[in-house]
Amino acid sequence: xxxxxxxxxxxxxxxxxxxxxxxxxxxxxxxxxxxxxxxxxxxxxxxxxxxxxxxxxxxxxxxxxxxxxxxxxxxxxxxxxxxxxxxxxxxxxxxxxxxxxxxxxxxxxxxxxxxxxxxxxxxxxxxxxxxxx
Length: 133
Prior knowledge:
Layout: H1 2-10, H2 18-28, H3 37-49, E1 53-56, E2 62-65, H4 67-101, H5 103-132
């Protein structure tokens, strides 16, 4: 998904080389995930074979997103959103149940989770405000 998203962000008229995408992902996931050629090259090839990316054989070389790739992103984002709602409901149940076992620890975990969400929401709200301007 991250690979496909980078090609979508570049746009259909701006082909990216695989090495460019690797560099973007390395910066984006610094200290969390290091993209390797053995992972990225086969993934891009798979996305191309499935019709999500178009290969450009003339300059500029590289790949670009296809309409089918853009549609796949919309579907994946929709699915992830549904999954997150389910996970959050289940996690809430677990934390509420854990509170009956160890209320102090459950409170600490809930507070940390809420702080994390508040930070996430602050960034998202800021992004939305910038988009409206």
